[in-house]
Amino acid sequence: MSISVLTASATAAFFVPFNPTPKAAAPKPFYPGPFSPSEVGSTGLPGDVGFDPLGLANFDLLLDGATDKERSAAYVMRDYRDAELKHGRFAMLAAVAWPLQEKLNPLLAAKWHIPNLVAETGGLSPSVLNGGLEQSIIPSAVVTFMIMASLIEAQGLRVKQEQGDSWLPGDYGKFFNLKIAERGTEQFFSLQSGETWNGRIAMIAILAYVVQEAITRVPTIDTIPFF
Q1: Is 102 labelled as part of a ligand binding site?
Q2: In angstroms, rounded to a whole number, what is the distance separating the alpha carbons of residues 211 and 91?
Q3: Residue 79's closest CA among 52, 60, 51, 54?
Q4: Residue 113, annotated as binding a ligand
Q5: What gap in Å lies between CA 197 and CA 147, rounded to an integer?
Q6: Does 162 belong to an annotated binding site?
């Protein structure tokens, strides 16, 4: 090999740009499609019995998912649990208030001379399907309730931001903490499971109230034997 060939090879090698081996990209969260196994069943969350036949947990439809498309599946499941707890708590309140207002409102209206808000609907609770939501103080009461719920939600978001990875779904800070059990104990986990299951039952109950009254036009209170 001649000296000119060696010189040309060295010169070419000098001017070739150096391309180091690229680092492996960080693995992205894998969300399989519908009907595929999801994180449900392995989350360790209270009340997780592995029931997700449609694979709904495989989709990040939450607000944080709009800004972070690579969120961990664990964070997605945690936020879904937070949403479930919120709906369950509202449902537990509604499951009691729905039949009670059908029972008590006519009695209180007769005694205190206040509007009977279930008279227009034939004894049914005012609702989207039953009607009667335009009466008296109902619109302002709904708006007031929404404002209060928004303030509580804002408090929850502040607590979530402050606590970071240690945040638990449904935690709204010290003001809402009844201190029934120490966080992290078996008793605390058991109470969390109880709240989750009671919330699920309440959501089913509310759905049953709505469907039953819409179809039969019979007030829920009249279907409860001890009333």
Answers
A1: no
A2: 15
A3: 60
A4: no
A5: 27
A6: no
Q: Is 213 annotated as a binding residue?
A: no
Annotated binding residue 198: yes
Instruction: State the Cα–Cα distance between residues 171 and 179, nearest whole angstrom.
Output: 12
Residue 209: CB atoms within 10 A of its CB come to 21
Residue 153, annotated as binding a ligand: yes
pLDDT digits (tens, 9 = 90+) for 63-78: 777 787 778 888 889 9
Closest CA to 130 of 140, 118, 139: 118
| Amino acid in position 160 | K
User: 0.85 exceeded by the pTM?
Assistant: no
Give the HSE-up count for residue 190: Cα atoms under 13 Å, Cβ half-sphere.
6
In 3D, which of 219, 201, 199 has the Cα closest to residue 209?
219
Beta-bridge partner residues of 131: 127
Structure confidence by residue, pLDDT tens digits, 41-53:
888 899 999 999 8
